[in-house]
Amino acid sequence: GYGPVSLSYYHGIQDLEEYYYVNAGVSFGDFGVNLGAHEDDMMHIDFSYAYNDNLSFTFSQVVDNVDGAYDDDLNVVVSYSIPIE
Predict the structure, then answer these.
(1) 0.85 cut: is pTM over it?
(2) How far is residue 57's CA from residue 47's CA, in Å, rounded to a whole number?
(3) What is the pLDDT of residues 16-75, one digit of tens each?
(4) CA-CA distance, 79 to 53, in Å (whole number)?
(5) Are strands 42-50 and 75-80 parallel, antiparallel or unpaired?
(6) Between 6 and 69, the higher pLDDT residue
(7) Which 8-state DSSP code applies to residue 1?
(8) Please, which residues have CB within 8 angstroms of residue 64's CB and are 6 or more apart in sequence?
């Protein structure tokens, strides 16, 4: 990644040699957008917002589901972290 832009590529090993996942993301302060593509013809988009250092929200939606194998309902994730000092 560079600045607010990131690009990641993951490739499986051993039993998952055919598997890959690509993720492109961009952040704007407390907001972020990620687009991910899996080898099995599924693509999703995530919108995230960090309310503060402890609380964040992510809205994830499948946008390309070629064979209909994935649930395409909107997923909402609320994350809360507790600092350990």
Answers:
(1) no
(2) 8
(3) 677 888 999 999 999 999 999 988 778 899 999 999 999 999 999 988 766 666 777 899
(4) 10
(5) unpaired
(6) 6
(7) -
(8) 37, 41, 42, 43
Report residue 14: phi and psi, to 5°: 50, -110
Contact predicate 11/18, CB 8 Å: no
Question: Considering only CA atoms, which of 39, 40, 47 is closest in space to residue 10?
Answer: 39
Q: For residue 77, what pLDDT is reported? A: 95
For 15, phi then psi, to 5°, come to -70, -15
CA pseudo-torsion sign 38, 63, 4, 85 = negative
pLDDT at 82 over 80: yes
With tokens 């600045």, the residue in question is 3
Specify the residue for token string 């499986």.
12
